[in-house]
Design a protein that fits this description.
Blueprint: E1 2-7, E2 11-19, E3 22-30, H1 36-50, E4 56-61, E5 64-65, E6 72-73, H2 85-93, E7 97-101, H3 102-113, E8 121-127, E9 131-137, E10 140-141, E11 161-162, E12 167-168, H4 183-186, H5 188-199, H6 205-213, H7 217-241, E13 246-249, H8 256-267, E14 279-281, H9 288-304
Parallel strand pairs: 1-4, 4-7, 8-13, 13-14
Antiparallel strand pairs: 1-2, 2-3, 5-6, 8-9, 9-10, 11-12
Length: about 300
């Protein structure tokens, strides 16, 4: 039996996994952000609720593990930021611990139990507050040892002009320290930033999308520019990875007409031609972090047993 955790800035969610088809969510607890002892105790209490002794635990977390040092970067939970979290938790819990990025766990969930089933190479894309992604090949997560594979949202590659007719796009500053990253326009906050740039109007992403669906001219222009900006980097990612399906998660994935427009633009820009949708809504809508972490833990158990 595996215990998986989805560790977020506000809540820790747990789950029991006995097999790929038997994954059951447990309850959720507030995340102790500034107290590592309380953080460990929260995990202990969720494990104790099961009344069983797990063979290992696996964590999905909004952070990145350095594959060389195993140090975790997780700015929104200070008590675990900068720690060798897997080793520290193994010492505290007395269990093997696996730590993975939440976007990687999303990709793993979609490859195993979601829209990526039956595909050798699955690229899971996140279009939420920002942009993220994960890559699974032959059922294995490319980032199993930690790392940055799948982070298509970062790198100064954003087009300087987009839309029909083209309009100049600023090289927006990104939280990663660079300028012109896809993350600056591809998520919900990026869509709002684009609308402000194009029309000097401050609207929420929900309002922009609502107006676009009603045919409003300015919102339609914003979506045209958005799709043009996001489609090319995603098409390049698909060309490089050879992915044959791209499940999309995050808040913007709920807008199926937007994904349909993005899918059409991406398929027009890749080398391999598909006569079916390639960029699709995710199917693991409930707790993909838990599912992905559980699948990683189960595969690790098989590998080491």
């Amino acid at each position: 039996m595996i215990i998986s955790f989805d560790i977020g800035g506000s809540a820790i969610k747990g789950g029991i996994a006995r097999s790929e088809t038997d994954i059951v969510p447990l309850g959720r607890r507030p995340t102790p952000k500034g107290d590592f002892a309380a953080f460990v105790q929260t995990l202990r209490s969720i494990i104790a609720e099961t009344g069983e002794e797990p063979s290992r635990t696996a964590l999905s977390i909004a952070g990145v593990v350095d594959p060389d040092t195993q140090l975790l970067t997780c700015a929104n939970i200070p008590c675990i930021h900068g720690r060798t979290l897997a080793a520290d938790l193994e010492a505290e819990l007395g269990l093997p611990v696996l730590v993975a990025n939440d976007a990687d766990c999303f990709a793993m969930a979609e490859a195993g139990l979601g829209a990526g089933r039956g595909h050798r190479i699955v690229f899971g894309a996140i279009l939420g507050t920002g942009v993220g992604g994960g890559l699974v090949a032959d059922g294995r997560l490319v980032n199993e040892a930690g790392g940055f594979a799948g982070e298509w949202g970062h790198g100064p590659i954003l087009a300087s002009a987009a839309g029909n007719p083209p309009i100049a796009i600023p090289a927006y500053a990104c939280g990663c320290g660079q300028r012109g990253c896809v993350d600056t326009v591809g998520g919900a906050r990026g869509l709002e930033r684009l609308h402000k740039t194009l029309h000097d109007l401050e609207l929420s992403s929900e309002e922009i999308i609502g107006q676009w669906r009603q045919g409003e001219e300015k919102a339609t222009r914003t979506i045209d520019v958005y799709v043009d900006l996001v489609a090319s980097p995603l098409a390049l990612t698909i060309n490089i990875t050879g992915a044959t399906i791209v499940p999309v998660g995050g808040g913007l994935s709920n807008v199926e007409p937007l994904l349909a427009e993005l899918d059409k633009a991406v398929r027009a820009r890749i080398l391999r031609k598909f006569d079916r949708p390639l960029v699709v809504p995710s199917e693991c809508r409930i707790e993909p972090g838990l599912i992905g972490a559980a699948l990683l833990g189960l595969k690790a158990k098989v590998t080491t047993s």
